[in-house]
Amino acid sequence: MTLPLRELTIRTQYDPGERVWSRLNTIQGIRRLSVWSLEWGPPRVLQGWADLLSSSLTYLELGRCAGVPATILISVFMKLPLLQELCLKALDTEYLDSGNYRTPLTPLPRLQRLTIQTGSVDIDGPQKLWTWMRILLPHQQTLKSFTLNAFAVHGQITIPRPFIVNLTGRHGKSLQDFAVGVAQLTLETVSYMCSTCPQLTTLECSVASPDVDSIAKAIEAGHNLRTLSLHVSWIPHGSVDLLPQFEKYSEPRTMYADSSHLISEGKASRFTEEQARALMLQTRLRSIGIGDQSYTSIFLSVFFRVGGFIGDILPRSHRMLEKKMSY
Asked: What are the C-alpha distances in Å from 222 to residues 34, 58, 267, 282?
């Protein structure tokens, strides 16, 4: 008796050819499918195969989507009503509005996890991407994880605030993980996300900030945050008036200890062990990375075990090990 195939991963350097794909396209019952051919041949995005997988497929990774119009991608997704996790790599934003695309009448799958890897050569960045991703997520309170790995040839990508407002408006109650790599958010937008996504446990993005206190203020409303990873561009004090805008999103309390002495000493742009300890003690954070400094809950647990500040007891080599280990 042959057991049915439930998971299939295809990784090839070159396209296997039409004969192989014709044979593959007869397989039914697959629940998890990953397809990635790096070079040569047309991108394979399940045209002609999606119909056979409509009653089973819950996870799909397409590793090469460059040059595929949005109309084709959407037509495939509409045939996969059980799809919960979607990962699109090498997505070409130049093709996202090709084919006179309109919002589909057939319901799209209720995605729980969306991962997109893309790039743009436009001077304004991948502007078409934001609208297209909103169309991919039409349902209410289904998305749990959103991951974006995007780059622009001309400068850094900034995620538009309207996209965040739309995303949290539809999925704020369900969203748990938000990781956009080096794509930039304002501190005000970070604060807005923390206040509108009560289940948010992971936040990764780039920000510009004058000091760690401003970052701490921005995440005040993130009561369930466990992991914080920020790529920080340190800016001079007073260059951006951010703090007054946080008040409408955060509670009137002091979460983070004053670090004015660090600012006066010119150390505000370095995330220190003292600051990490203060954040962990006053929040539920257990993994913090700000700039090139990162700490985990091991750092805090060692502090409690020895009854003092870890930096006073362990040599530098041990401290670095404690910072890099995960719990």
From this structure: 34, 30, 26, 12
